[in-house]
Specification:
The chain is an alpha/beta fold. The protein has seven helices and ten strands. The relative contact order is 0.14. The protein binds S-adenosyl-L-homocysteine.
């Protein structure tokens, strides 16, 4: 059995209980070395074979999994954050389907959740935005034209931009083209939940300058939107006058 496990955003105690148990039990671990905290591997059995997928191809990863299956071993494929976001797990699962090898997916805390926690922010504020757009700039991996940043920016929703810290002048240009004002609040969160985490608040206009000042070129998320700063409405759910399934609303005293 292969277990695709979300390692969480960085801090070793932000993996799920299930993920940690699987690391402790597994015979083979293939981890995404560029972003998974290696301290998570300290929990592995001394006999566990550990592979860093940073230098491996898909074919090599699958070959390790196939070999482990033939030897009746348990394998953990450890992905950073949650495996469903930019994790390239679908292609691995399809290869396993072809070979009739069983697998499961164990979710993880994505870095975009780690970044919100670091910022002490709420992405979905009433009257500000009720939508989170998770996207990236096109780099060597293309992005469909219909998802170009300026098109998404037109929604003025909360935006979480992965994999783009090295393209900030272009990102700002695309955000402005999509209608964001230059002084729209933005933030760069570098290595959210790691010990060397950095939280930089800035604006759409000075994203590149802010990153440059702090020597940030990768392992960062870019957050954009008025959720970072400014007014909002309080939630109806917890408002004294609001009635719902579990609570009867009351008129406020005059
Ligand atoms: N599956 C992962 C994302 C992998 S793509 C997740 O759910 O978080 C890799 C990109 O994720 C990085 O380029 C960076 O933009 C972002 N990232 C991953 N870990 C991060 C962290 N701890 N802090 C900030 N950004 C992070």
């Amino acid at each position: 059995m292969i277990h695709f496990v979300g390692a969480g955003p960085g801090a070793v105690d932000l993996i799920t209980v299930r993920g940690q148990r699987l690391i402790r039990e597994s015979d083979v671990i293939i981890y995404a070395g560029s972003l998974v905290n290696p301290d998570l591997l300290l929990e592995a059995k001394p006999t566990c074979s550990i592979y860093n997928s940073a230098s491996m191809t898909l074919e090599e990863v699958i070959a390790v999994m196939v070999q482990a299956e033939q030897e009746n071993k348990q394998t953990v494929r450890l992905h950073t954050g949650d495996p469903s976001l930019y994790g390239a797990i679908r292609e691995q699962m399809d290869c396993l389907n072809q070979r009739h090898i069983a697998y499961e997916v164990v979710p993880g805390v994505s870095s975009f959740c780690g970044a919100a926690a670091a910022l002490q922010a709420e992405y979905t504020l009433p009257d500000v935005s009720q939508t989170v757009i998770i996207t990236r700039m096109a780099g060597r991996t293309p992005v469909p034209q219909r998802e170009e940043i300026s098109l998404l920016a037109q929604h003025q929703s909360t935006m979480v931009i992965f994999l783009s810290a090295g393209m900030l002048p272009q990102l700002t240009e695309r955000l402005l083209a999509g209608g964001y004002l230059p002084d729209t609040p933005a933030a760069i969160v570098y290595k959210a939940t790691w010990e060397d985490e950095k939280i930089l608040r800035c604006t759409v206009q000075n994203l590149a300058q802010t990153a440059k000042q702090h020597h940030i070129t990768k392992t960062a998320l870019i957050l954009v939107g008025r959720f970072l700063d400014g007014d909002y409405s309080r939630s109806l759910l917890y408002h004294p006058t609001f009635t719902h399934e579990f609570r009867e609303g009351k008129a406020l005293p005059q």
